[in-house]
Amino acid sequence: MLDISVAYNRYKFLGYEFLTWLWFLIQEDPGEIRKADPELLSLDIGNRLVLENRIGESAEVITIKGDDAGLEEGILALKKGAVVTEMNLLYKSGDYEWRFTLKGDGLTMASLRTPDTGKVETKEDLEGAVLEKIYLREKAVNLTDSLFGQFIRLRISREWDKIMVSSIRQWIHSND
Question: Could you state, in order of their start, the residue ranges of all structural domains in the chain?
Answer without folding.
Answer: 4-174
